[in-house]
Amino acid sequence: xxxxxxxxxxxxxxxxxxxxxxxxxxxxxxxxxxxxxxxxxxxxxxxxxxxxxxxxxxxxxxxxxxxxxxxxxxxxxxxxxxxxxxxxxxxxxxxxxxxxxxxxxxxxxxxxxxxxxxxxxxxxxxxxxxxxxxxxxxxxxxxxxxxxxxxxxxxxxxxxxxxxxxxxxxxxxxxxxxxxxxxxxxxxxxxxxxxxxxxxxxxxxxxxxxxxxxxxxxxxxxxxxxxxxxxxxxxxxxxxxxxxxxxxxxxxxxxxxxxxxxxxxxxxxxxxxxxxxxxxxxxxxxxxxxxxxxxxxxxxxxxxxxxxxxxxxxxxxxxxxxxxxxxxxxxxxxxxxxxxxxxxxxxxxxxxxxxxxxxxxxxxxxxxxxxxxxxxxxxxxxxxxxxxxxxxxxxxxxxxxxxxxxxxxxxxxxxxxxxxxxxxxxxxxxxxxxxxxxxxxxxxxxxxxxxxxxxxxxxxxxxxxxxxxxxxxxxxxxxxxxxxxxxxxxxxxxxxxxxxxxxxxxxxxxxxxxxxxxxxxxxxxxxxxxxxxxxxxxxxxxxxxxxxxxxxxxxxxxxxxxxxxxxxxxxxxxxxxxxxxxxxxxxxxxxxxxxxxxxxxxxxxxxxxxxxxxxxxxxxxxxxxxxxxxxxxxxxxxxxxxxxxxxxxxxxxxxxxxxxxxxxxxxxxxxxxxxxxxxxxxxxxxxxxxxxxxxxxxxxxxxxxxxxxxxxxxxxxxxxxxxxxxxxxxxxxxxxxxxxxxxxxxxxxxxxxxxxxxxxxxxxxxxxxxxxxxxxxxxxxxxxxxxxxxxxxxxxxxx
Length: 799
Fold this sequence. Notes:
nine-stranded parallel beta sheet; Glyco_hydro_31_TIM; 4 domains; 52 strands; 12 helices; hydrolase
């Protein structure tokens, strides 16, 4: 019997007084008399890492989330000591660590508090597993708002919410349901019109409480591991998101076709069925670039095999689809069927690549093929082996993309839907249990898949999509929001999730258009398409158990609406590609919630529905049936109604009437929006003109257009075209100045200018100081102004 009451103590423990500190270049170590160490590392003037240990020493410093290829640096660092605290000062913030209890407070240079500890760091011994439950609580002031945390199915503003991060196969999840498929332990705080960010890089099951339990306290904790978090100061939300995205990494450019429209179903088979779908898209002239094959293309659901009854000659089929512009994307799951005649299983068994239970045997679980073992993707050798398995699919058969599913990891017929927590993982040489590796399993699978697809698709770019992800997964893969439902509530959820994912570094995300489970009405499908074409990843996907969900499964009106909006997406491909370029170059999110767009306008802090697509297009979906319009908030500034060209002043909520074949779309005054002609697939047409929709604004507005050959890696060698337009509107004049960077020369030779909102009648035009007679010679049949693309300054002068 235990009689030592110290061993029976249960409760929270805290750092005691600091007894020493030392500085090593960019890191400052603080030691307490109860063996707690705080390591503060200055990565940038506005990016500070806080790492705590209660053991008197730190374990190996390793993270899957951090982009190690990127270097950091600061401009100024000064460490000083006062009577009650130590102070660390950079050119952006000052951080104070209290001597008596190690609590942290962070101020701007004007002594305004940005963030301060409430209880600060504390911990609780985990008697079930050993180790610690690590905790952090911060003081929260009235009026503070919180955003981010990945694809949570709840309000944009997380104030008052308690959320859980544990990657979970959550089929047909509901609004506010926790947890979901992805884990992004990063949030943005906004108070007094200033933003900061916290990234809690801990892969154990984590929790966040945004003033839910206690009104003025925000806290986060994990069931193991370290209290290891990064503080990011804005003060603009744009700066916070960009810094976080830079910290966790950015993707490479996808091939342009990956930004087209995709069609998927569980499942298209046999080959004749897939060919019918392809032919129907072309017959109805609804653009489509990719068709997906779900698990039924495999032989008995064995990964890297083909069902020869359904698909007797996959190489021929994939080539024939490609001739008509369709790229084939196939699903690959982590469960490897236990079958001694199955070569993938045999090889993994021989090389000891499967995950094991704590007492030695391979972890076994049921998924689609039946009983399976599961590769340990946290082992570099396993990732290398897995990458090599894609040779036949990609380089021989010609598949263009791979879709990773069930990688939370999901396991059927068990209460917790996943691996037992005692499963062991290599964790890149840092052995651990599944408690630590669970949340990053899907990302490491996607990483291995990415390297395989990239290796065998070269010199083309890879395309990978994943269901489960941890922070940093955006370096390898796109994603979708999982098994949603064909309901109006889920249309609302999809809108929120993709905005939030964009804020959380994972911009290349979309939802299953129309809903995966159950069957949408034609009206719901049409409204979902109208939203989905403004998501970076655009795919209809459904469960075959609930009926057909191709556009032609509905009536003629829905077919026409689908065509209209998919056509619009294909016209906007250069705008969308430019958004992606800015995302990978500067970490700028492709979708911008209104609070990101204008955090100083308090009316944006609780908006859910409206978002800015790129930098200059405002979108607000219709989220209720039988709508003839809706109220929406227009951000500050002037905006043109896309459908009517009516100019409205922002900074207020207005009623916008719409038809069934429209949703509210507005374009920022002064914007120049690039458009391609409608194509049935990327690369179908050669064209000699780039259309530029020019929205007049009295004042200055900058617009940019990025282009390259739409695939391959020449863009990394400078073979791209980056156009910077500046439109300056005056009372009787519009000046368009153009600057070009990059060595790529586009195939088209002319710009087709669509002048919108001009307040004057055009009298003369000057191109690079040469006057051009403004008559039918300079106009095409539609009244658009045609100019050669090589100009640097265009003056449109009114009477």
